[in-house]
Amino acid sequence: MAGSGGWDRVLTAVLIALALAAPFILYPVFVMEALCFALFACAFNLLIGYVGLLSFGHAAFFGSAAYITAHTVKVWGLSPELGILVGAGVAALLGTVFGWLAIRRQGIYFAMITLALAQMVYFVALQARFTGGEDGIQAVPRGKLLGIVDLNHTLTMYYFVLAIFLIGFAIIVRTVHSPFGQVIKAIRENEPRAVSLGYDADRYKLLAFILSAGLSGLAGSLKSLVFQLASLTDVQWTMSGEVVLMTLVGGLGTVLGPVVGAFLLTAMQHYLAQLGSWVTVVQGVIFVFCVLVFRRGVVGAIAPYAAGGRSPSGISSGAAATRAKPAEARTAAAPRAP
Amino acid sequence: MFEWLQLTVPPAPAMFAQLLVGLINGAFYAMLSLGLAVIFGLLNIINFTHGAQYMLGAFCAWFLLNALGLGYWPALILAPIIVGALGIAIERLLLRHIYGLDHLYGLLLTFGLALIIEGVFRQQFGSSGQPYAIPSELQSGRNLGFMFLPNYRAWVIVASLVLCLATWFTIERTRLGAYLRAATENPVLVQAFGINVPRMITLTYGAGVGLAALAGVMAAPIYQVSPLMGSNIIITVFAVVVIGGMGSILGAIVSGFALGLVEGLTKVFYPEASSTVIFVIMALVLLVKPAGFFGRAA
User: Which region among A14-23, A267-276, B5-14, B115-124 has the lowest average model confidence (pLDDT)?
Assistant: First the structure.
C-alpha cells in the first residue's frame, strides 16, 4: 500500500472507497466483524510474516482485551475510546510478559509455548469472577465516543470501527517499511547474521511481539464493542487457530493478505453458520489444502501477476522471501541439531 | 476464605485420592509426550493431531464394544492397530509432501487434521461424553489402609509404566532403536547403509499414533469418551514437552509423571490453580532453563 508505484495509490483509493461504501452494500455488522478480524490477522501477520515467529496463542491478547474493555466500559463506566485504550494496553502488557518468556525458544517450541501460555489465560478467564464464566460479559454498552457521538447507531459504529482499523493498519504498514521493519526482516532471514551486525535480535523480536499483541488487543476491544459481548470463544485456542488460518489463506508476509483472508473466512462462517461443527471440518480442510498446495495464499498468488512489469515494492519482495520459507528452520531449536 | 482451612489441614484420604488422580493424569501425559517425542525425533513434526488420535483410540474402543461387541481387552490391541493404520495413511498421503518445508508447516497441517477429526466427531456426538465401562476383571478395588485403590487405576499406572519403559528400551537398547536414533541424527547416511528410511519414518509415525490410541483406550473407562478429550489434554502435553525437552525419551516419561503429580498436589492445596499450575511451571522453567530439563541446549 505504501509502495512507490502508481498502482498502489489507485488500489488504496479503490479499497478505501469500497470500505466507505460497504455498509450500504453489505450487512454492516458483518463488515465490522470482518474488519476486527482483519486487524487481528494483520497484527498476527506482523509476527509470522515479518519476524518469522509463529504464535499459536494470539487469542490470549484478543480475548483479554475484549474482556478488559467490556468490563471497564460496563462496570466502571469508562468511555468507549478509553475502554479500548485500556484493553489494548493490557494486551500489550500481557504481550510483554509472554513475549519475554517465549522468545527464549524458537520455531516449533515458540508455537507450543505461546499456545500453552494462552491456555493459561483461558483458564483464568474461565475461573475469574469478573469474566462471567461460561456466559461471558454480555450487553456491553457502546456508549458515546468522546462523550458526543452516539455509537449505538450502526453506521456511526461502522465508521468508528473503520477508522480504528485504518489507524491500526497504517501503524503496521509503517512499521513494516520502517528501519525497524527492515531489521526484523533481516532477523527472519538470518538471525546470526543480524546479531553479528550488532542488532540485539531478542530486543527487536520482543518489540515486534509487544506491538503485535497490542494491536491484537485493539482488535479484540473493538470486537467486544461491536458485538457488545466478550466471551470464552475470544480466548480459546480455536480463536488462535482461526487467526493463523486467516493469515495463511490470505498470504503470509503480504500486507493485504490477512485482510483478504479475514473477509473470506468471516464470510464462510456466516454462510456455513447453520452447519454446526462442519465449520470446524471445513476450516481443517482449508488448513490442509493451504499447507499442501497453496502456501502463498490468495494475495501471495495474485501479487506477482498484479505487479506486472513494475519494479517490486518492499511488500512483494518481503512476501516472496516469506513464501519461500518462514526462516525458523535455520535457527530452530531442534534438539537433533548437532 | 475456606481454602485457607484446607491449606493447613488437608484430610489424608482426600490427599491420597488426589495424588492418585495426579498419577493417572501423569501416566497419560507421559504416554502422549512420549509419542510426540518419538515422532518429532524422526519426522521433525510436532504432531498436533496427537490429541485427536488419542480421542480416536477411545472412540475406536467404544465402537468395537457397541457395534461388534468386542470388549476392553481386544480393543486394547485392535484400536492401536486401526488408528495406527490411519496414521500410516496420513503419513503417506499428506505428511510426506511437507518434509522439505519449514517445521511450522508440519504443525499447521497436523493442526488442520486435528480440526477435521474433532469436527466430524463433534458433529456426530456433540460435546458430551459416552460412557465406557471398566472391564469386569478390574471392577473392584482394594483397601490399602490409608486409601481405597480401584483396581483399574492401579492397572493403568502399571501398564503405562511398562509401556513407557518398553518404548524406552526399544529405542535406546535394541538394534531397531539404534537405526532409529541414527536416522534421527543423519537420515541420508543411514539410507546409504541400505536401510529404508522412508519406510522407517512411516512405521515410526504409525507406532507413535498407535501409542496415542492405546492411551485413548486406557483413558476411555476413566474419563468419558468425548470428542473434546483430545484437545483438552494435548495443550497440557505440549507444556509438558516444553518443560521436559524433546531431546530424551526418559525425560518425556519422567516429566509426564512428575507434572501429573504436581497437578494432583495443587488440587489438594490450592484447587483454583490446578488447571494452570503446569503452565506456570513451564514459564518458570523457561526462565531458569530455557532448553527444558532434559533437552539439549538450544
Answer: B5-14
Contact assessment for residue A173 and residue A255, using Cβ atoms and an 8 Å cutoff = yes
Residue A175 is which amino acid?
T
Predicted confidence at residue A335, as pLDDT, reads 38
B186 interfaces chain A, CB cutoff of 8 Å: no
| Residue range B11-125+147-288, CATH number | 1.10.3470
pLDDT, tens only, B122-166:
988 887 888 888 888 788 877 777 778 888 889 999 999 999 999
Q: DSSP readout, chain B?
A: -HHHHHHH---HHHHHHHHHHHHHHHHHHHHHHHHHHHHHHHH----TTHHHHHHHHHHHHHHHHHHH---HHHHHHHHHHHHHHHHHHHHHHTGGGGTTS-HHHHHHHHHHHHHHHHHHHHHHH-SSPBP-PPPGGG--EEE-SSSEEEHHHHHHHHHHHHHHHHHHHHHHHSHHHHHHHHHHH-HHHHHHTT--HHHHHHHHHHHHHHHHHHHHHHHTTTS-B-TTHHHHHHHHHHHHHHHH-TT-HHHHHHHHHHHHHHHHHHHHH-GGGTTTHHHHHHHHHHHH-TT-SSSPP-
Residues of A in Cβ contact (< 8 Å) with B298: 105-106, 109, 333
B52 Cβ contact list (under 8 Å, min separation 6): B113, B114, B117, B118, B230, B231
Q: What are the angstrom distances between the C-alpha of A20 and each of A31, A40, A265, A299, B252?
A: 11, 20, 21, 22, 55
Predicted TM-score (pTM) of the model is: 0.87
pLDDT tens per residue across span A186-245 = 998 888 999 999 999 999 999 999 999 999 999 999 999 999 888 888 898 889 999 999
CA distances from B86 to A191, A293, B90, B267 (A): 39, 22, 6, 37
Among positive and negative, which fits the CA dihedral A175, A179, A185, A188? negative
Sign of the torsion angle spanned by Cα atoms B3, B9, B12, B16: positive
Rounded to the nearest 10 degrees, what angle do helices A237-250 and A28-50 cross at?
Answer: 80
Q: Does B188 touch chain A (CB under 8 A)?
A: no
- The answer to whether residue B182 neighbours chain A at the CB level (below 8 Å) is no
Strand partners for B130 = B225
The gap between the terminal CA atoms of chain A, to the nearest Å, is 43
Chain A residues near residue B283 by CB distance under 8 angstroms: 101, 117
